[in-house]
User: Fold these one by one.
Assistant:
Number 1:
Amino acid sequence: MLIQTVFLDAGGVLVNPNWSRVSNTLTRHGVTAAAAALAAAEPRAKKRLDTGDLVSATNDAQRGWRYFNLVLTEAGVTLSDATASALAELHAYHEQFNLWESVPDEVHPALAALRARGFKLVVLSNANGRLRYLFDRLGLSGSLDALFDSYDEGVEKPDPRFFQRALERTGAEAQSTIHVGDFYHIDVAGARAAGITPALLDVAGLYPECDCLRVRSLTELVTVLGEDAGTGD
């Protein structure tokens, strides 16, 4: 069956942390870390989090702030009271506005191209209840057909119930749906458990052993799905 629906993760796929905001906050607390260095370190930090044991033993909120410590460590920053204070300030900002507020240049053109081909576009994100507000603020909501925030649903990836709920509410079928995410043990494992075709967005090429579709960009995803024009019928 041809792909008709594209499920997309939010963080790491459509939006990224505002590394300039992170860098500036660290600076105010006496810690030097360039935004570019943090962004470059981020894929390696995510890979360290992406283990089956860790994912099964934690929830998204617990992983989220461990993730920032790993980013700092991978960027060569020594963890300290100052970094903890900076992250606490960033956490407060995230709770109100959502720190994942940087939209990669490829996102809007890729979403437009997928829609032009007839694909239904649905976001499934482990988030904090502020995702819809964030997407409205960033001008992304109009490019999507539906958005599901785990905080609102009371269930999060990799639990297949999250995916199944999105399928039911959007009228999509698992067999004709692909889910694109950036964590193997959250996105790929969860999609597979729900009978959905998984795809891993591996921007830094850190998953050569990946046993599913692997793309380095959303632009590449558009190319791969180019022959699977979603007709919606």
Note: The chain has a mean pLDDT of 95.
Number 2:
Amino acid sequence: MKHFWSRGPLPATALLLALGVFASACGNDDPAAPPMATPSLTLRPARVPLGYPVEMTYKFIVASGAKFTQNYRVMVHFVDQDDGPMYQDDHDPPVPTTSWMPGQTIEYTRRFFAPVYPYVGNATIEIGLYCKDCKLRAPLAGTDTGHRSYRVAELTLLPQSEGVTVMYKDGWYASEGSDTSGDGSWHWSKKDATLAIKNPKKDSVLYLKVGNPDGPFKEPQRVSVSLDDGGSLDQFTTSSGQGVTLRTIPISAAAWGSRDTVELRMSVDKSYIPSALVPPMNDPRELGVRVFRVVVVPKGS
């Protein structure tokens, strides 16, 4: 069965709806055309627990006679073993395609966090090039699964329990949003919040993705991260116009200590209550910042 996905990006809310049109689209291929580029994708690592980061290195070798007259986006779709779409990471390449020259190699790396999605096993990654005003995706070299969507790599998704366990303990609200699109789901923190982390007892990297796009403050909020013994790990600022900030914080085995569970504290210098704003919002919670990701990856994982 061939994939029949939109020429452009497929919103997360439409993923399941797209399944309903697969049967009628089987065999409905686009016309043959000379490939404009040869795509490839390298994953590091190629096996990750749900929620973990993957360094995805994209490479496009532009064909000798190719000329891009439109700026294309890169379509990136993750497909399960039953050919069902799960999630996506569509993006603009760092060099616009109208600047790609014949014979040129375009290569860049993006960090992608595997969503905490109810699926483990092998996932196929397919890519393509599309643009807003184009009726067809650009023809590329490789295995076309239908409608110029090309299979380029495979990612093995492991259970979340295979990674370092992180529990939202005190000072957090329930998860909101969807983990399959954009920056993913998030937890609002209070002014002070605590995470309980299963001690990896190894040198590790803490990935912390934070933002407060709708905050009422004119000045940035200062965020402090520390271990429960008082050891400071990081301090940074985030503001409503800044978007989402991803911090990569190294933590040594010595800093983790010997306890089985370690508490990590996160504090912001100011919080707010939406219902106390002028005009007020119907939300009486004390809000600090949105936290989209907290992932601990031991070195060598």
Note: The first strand starts at residue 37 and ends at 44.
Number 3:
Amino acid sequence: MKASIHWVIAGGGSGGHVTPAIALAEQARERGDAVLLLGAKRGMETRLVPAAGFELLALAANPVYGTSLLSRVRAVPGMARACWLAWRALGSFGTDFVISVGGYASVPAVIAAVLRRIPIALVEPNAIPGRANRAAARRASQIFVNFERAKAAFESAGIDRVQRVGIPLRKSIVEGFGAGDADRATARTLEPPFRLFVTGGSQGARQINEAMIEAAPLLKAAPFEIEIVHQSGQADRDRTDAAYRDAGIKAVVVDFEPDMFARYRWADLVLCRAGAITIAELALAGMPALLVPYPFAADNHQAANARDFTEAGAGVIVDEQPLPGARVVAELTALFGAPQKLVEMSRNASMQARPDAASRILEDCARRLEP
């Protein structure tokens, strides 16, 4: 095996792509390898990658798929230049392997790798493969997926170089949650008051906030005691806090939750979105969930993510538009009325954990470089 491998990790735009990119970079650095990240100037990577201590080449790439014809035409010159800069960067860096984590920001590096005949691997975080990874699939030496649905999607297209290894998560996340907390299911006796953690992500989620505001007076009359921690985002914080207070519900409402580890450990159940990173965190924490897929996600991939998690017996989907507070209360009543069900869901969630995804991906790719 080559002593020191030069990895280029390409992609970004959203946190669901940037997080696995940084996780792979951390693993590469731990191996003693060299790593360069390629992303887009408009993506979250411009802030998160340098903060993590890695070099980022940010290219002026714009989305081509899912936009108007005029936008696609306007994007072509910029994409061509981005491909040229990526081609030059791959050569000067002495790249051995390119790993795409998806998103439009990955396209220039993948095209440049094909032109330079550098091996490519794809990492697909979501249950429905993204358009960039679908376009690159036949050029890839190996495809690594997080969900069984993604594996089936690639295989149905005649591509059999697919492994389900999970999604690479940053070392701090894996260590914070533990490597799949299989003992969590029996660590706490589930009894009233039950503990619900509500989160819509770092900015909150209006749909979830509105549902809980509507649910608050119904919860007071529900046949169970409840305590709530609700990460609402700044815009809805005061309204959400007032709804709980007026209903006499014991709740802590925060704009942003900096210690997700502590909140997951505290909770009996989470009400949340169904992004790939969220699902992976739930698995690591052994946390059952009521999943509210973001309805405007590309290709409705959050709904597919949620189906994989619920079919494993780890969650329940609540996806009505808009989401009625009464539906939330009904689901909570069913689960808190049968605590053993939550224990089983917790155990099933832990069985989905893949804390070693980053190391498995790099080890597999490194073996492909052996003479």
Note: The chain has a mean pLDDT of 91.
Number 4:
Amino acid sequence: MQQLIQAKTILSKYKQADPWFHIKYAMNLYRGCQHQCIYCDSRSECYRIANFEDILIKENAIGLLRSELKKLKEKDTIGTGSMNDPYMPVEKEIQLTRQALEVIYEFRYPVHVITKSDMVLRDVEILQKIGRVYATVSITITTADDALSAILEPGAPVSSKRFEAVKQLNEKGIRAGILLMPVLPFITDTEENIRLIIEKAKEAKAAYVLPAFGMTLRDKQRDYFFDKLEKYNPKILAQYQRYYRGQYSFQSPIQDKLSSLFSQLCRQHGIKTEIPAYEKVEDGQMRMFD
């Protein structure tokens, strides 16, 4: 179901930019997500989304964004993609993300887009213009196997299309990297998967790869994930039930081994393992650093 709603605000300000993605202002133009990743943390009770399959479209989002940017005193990175994907299928018609990027360019703000969709290629020209200040696109890829990605992320383009999007963005001068997260215990936490993703990242000229060797598991998110595992592979569900002890974060049992392999491969292929941040200069000029 799709529904138009009126939002009260569109930008959420963090006290400090987060250390991984360097985002200071979070922007979510929709509620709910059509990609329906079976592990998505946004299903958790704390986010108060009654039905994650319902897509709520914030029809006043662009007006709010323009108004709020006029009032901001601190110029820092706007991030989108934390609670839902800014390039899920509904965006093709509604184009809130495209309109928001145009406003962000107008106000000369830096932006970090997080997505699982190659639809981001539609907005290459706008991202190139924003990139004169700072633009980064992180594309999440959890598995190198298209068949498995279609199970884990049924509403998103398969992994091969995402690798191709990373390649095209970098070839067009837009910094694009890969988020290897989550690495799902007993599913994608294999040496072969890590090795293939890094090799394909090299082929795609990825500016960086940022991993997380585990996942969150809480309340509604956990229930949904376990239900899908029961249908997908009961043996894997049994492993989760055996090792999971109710903690918020559930790490891969071999995370140290995988982390070591990941670091080794990234050094071997010359791939960065952190995201370059937008840098403000004291004289008021803006620049990027790699």
Note: The chain has one domain: 2-288.
